[in-house]
Amino acid sequence: MSEPDAGSHRAPGLAPSDPGVFRVLRLNGAGGATPVDALDATAAAGETIWIDLDRRDARAQAWVREAAGLDPMIAEALIAEDTRPRHVIHPPGALVLMRGVNLTEGANPEDMLSVRVWGEPGRVITLHVPGVHAVEDAVAAITLGAGPRDAGELIVTLAERLVDRAQPVVAAVDDAMDEAEERLLGTSADPTRTELSATRRRAIILRRFLAPKRDALVSLMAGSSTGPGSELFNERHRARLREAADRLTRLVEDLDAVRERATIVMEQVAAKVADRMNQRVYILSLVAAVFLPLGLLTGLLGINVGGIPLAESRLGFAIVSGGLLAIAVGLTVLFRRMRWL
User: Fold this and answer.
1) According to the per-residue pLDDT averaged within each range, which of 86-90, 184-188, 288-292 is highest?
2) 212-222 CB burial, b ≥16 within 10 A, e <16
3) Comparing C-alpha atoms, which of 65, 20, 13, 61 is closest to residue 40?
4) d(C-alpha 246, C-alpha 301), whole Å
5) Which CA distances in Å does 56 have to 20, 80, 132?
6) Which one-letter DSSP state was computed for residue 239?
7) Strand spans (E) along 55-210
8) pLDDT tens digits for 290-319?
């Protein structure tokens, strides 16, 4: 399949005002941007066109596949239903697939949202669903005139903001684990297995996507220094990618620690439950041991035959009850001396 020519960029009839287009901006190279009225606009020297699309929109997908002038492999990766974080250097640019925490109201943060980016000198195409705060952060910076100045810096900025947005979520998981450990060691109610399982599950899911993203950033940093696509990133970009990868490594390590701590706390909770159960069974066993001979004696005294001692005495019941009590006390003292109690 050959790449479409420039004239085919208008084939799907997609315009910046269509629902599938979040924004089309011309980055001016100084931190600001102006809106663009066509997706096939050409960037002048020192400028970059940023095309931001809704990944779920059929017309946006058609534009990426048929009219964006992309290699078919790159186009399919951008609109794929499910992706894992990775990067591909493909002259003249780079494909970067990332994931960010879901900060939409009422959603679970671990239900991560994908951000697909194609960057080349003079143009960046991003696809994602609504609610990715990292993209809005980049737009807010551009509005203030302090945004990315070129394609490489836009990719780096999105990567950094995705990491920034993940930090509070990972910190919340870590705090939940701290609280569970404090409850286990304190006097309050022990954490339940359901709570610990939920915390451990969140840590596992977050790590599942953050770890490959870290690897993708490290690989992008290394692959962007030499060879095809290296013109997209300068040394400052690579330094920022290195810092983002380092922060992401710390987050992954925190999640690994949470997962291991949750396993240990679950084992401790199970051990405490088993200890309490064993203690109760032990006490019941001792009570049974005390009352077993008493039950034997009362059974013997209750048989319906002649010759039962004290049967005719008015003090018989009191004497027998006292004797039984004395036996119970004696057994209790014996058990204490044997350190069974």
Assistant:
1) 86-90
2) bbbbbbbebbe
3) 13
4) 82
5) 8, 10, 14
6) H
7) 86-90, 93-100, 113-120, 123-128
8) 778 878 777 767 766 666 776 677 777 788
